[in-house]
Amino acid sequence: MTKTILVVEDELSIATLLQYNLEQAGFNVLLAHDGKKGLDLAVEKTPDLMLLDLMLPTMDGVEVCKELRSLRMNIPIIMLTARDDEFDKVLGLELGADDYMTKPFSPREVIARVKAVLRRFTPSAAEEVKTGETTYEYGSLKVFPERFEAFLNDEALEFTPKEFELLVYLLENKNRVLTRDQLLSSVWNYDFAGDTRIVDVHISHLRDKIEENSRKPLFIKTIRGLGYKFEEPRK
Fold it and tell me: Which residue blocks in the chain are alpha helix, DSSP H?
């Protein structure tokens, strides 16, 4: 099935270039030139992925991202900006963006990023026909990767796509120490120019959601000077 990409970009030349290259790559494309229209289209059409500019008229990209996540819409989001500002980058990711690109970028790079993000959030045909389902259960925490579901004390938890992917990767490598660079490479699929704060932000969000006490985590342990480990609680 053809995937639909929503491009929310107020610079007409960039929006047109993105639309052309995405369509050439086989995607359906929806366009919006301000934040409010982009939000409305996202809610109405539920695209498979959004390319969302940070600086927009009527409502900026941060507000659009925040509103979508508050509506519990787990559309993968790649944020676009002309500013290579660490604060903007971390803020966007804190609010639920799944990737981040700084202008200028090449059409080839955009297509590669879009395909990489879609691969992470689209089950393969082999996965869809599996009869067995992977389940992780540790005390009060239950995680069902194929269903994009997790429960703590039998209450459903809400995650952004990136948070859930990170959680599953930690579970797949339980009791192993994973460096921040390893997590950047494996979960984000490329190096964020050494910006390991992105990992720390997402780990903090996971702890807030899956730990009974995020200040004294039972599951996700910090290994000082190295990284993180999902530790299977002792029975």
Answer: 12-24, 35-45, 61-70, 86-94, 107-121, 125-128, 161-172, 180-187, 197-210
d(CA 178, CA 106): 32
Taking the chain (235 residues) in consecutive chunks of 10 residues, what is each chunk's mean pLDDT?
Answer: 94 95 96 96 94 92 87 86 64 72 87 86 50 79 89 89 91 93 82 69 93 91 94 78
Contacts of 199 (CB under 8 A, 6+ apart): 180, 183, 184, 227, 228
Query: What backbone phi and psi angles, to 5 degrees, belong to 53?
Result: -70, 145
Domain termination residue (choose one: 121, 148, 180): 121
In the 8-state DSSP scheme, what is residue 16?
Answer: H
What is the domain-level CATH number for residue 212? 1.10.10.10
The reply to whether 167 falls in a domain is yes
Q: Is this model's pTM higher than 0.85 or not?
A: no
Instruction: Tell me which residue range forms the domain holding 197.
Output: 128-230
Provide the number of structural domains found in the chain. 2
d(CA 64, CA 41): 11
Backbone angles phi, psi at 101, to 5 degrees: -130, 135
Which of 59, 90, 121 is where one domain is finished?
Answer: 121
Give the Cα separation of 86 and 89 in Å (integer).
Answer: 5
Residue 91 lies in a domain: yes
